[in-house]
Amino acid sequence: MTSLIKENHLKQVGMLGQPIWLDDIRRDLITGGELRCLIEEDGLRGMTSNPAIFAKAITGSHDYDEDIRSMALDEKDSMEIYEALSRCDVQSAAAEFRTVYDETNGKDGYVSLEVNPHLAYNTNGTITEARRLWAALNRPNVFIKVPATTEGLQAIQQLISEGININVTLLFGLPRYRQAAEAYIAGLEARLAQGKAVKRVASVASFFVSRIDTLVDPLLEEIIAQGGDKTQLAKQVHGQVAIASAKAAYQIYKETFGSNRFKRLADQGAGVQRLIWASTGTKNPEYSDVKYVEALIGANTVDTIPVETFDAYRDHGEPKARLEQDIKGANRVLLRLSALGINIEKVTQQLEQEGVQKFNHPFDEMIEVLAKKCSQNLGRYALCNQHGFAASFQANESRKVPKEKVVTGKSACIK
Question: Where are the beta strands (DSSP E) in 253-312?
Answer without folding.
Answer: 274-278, 301-305
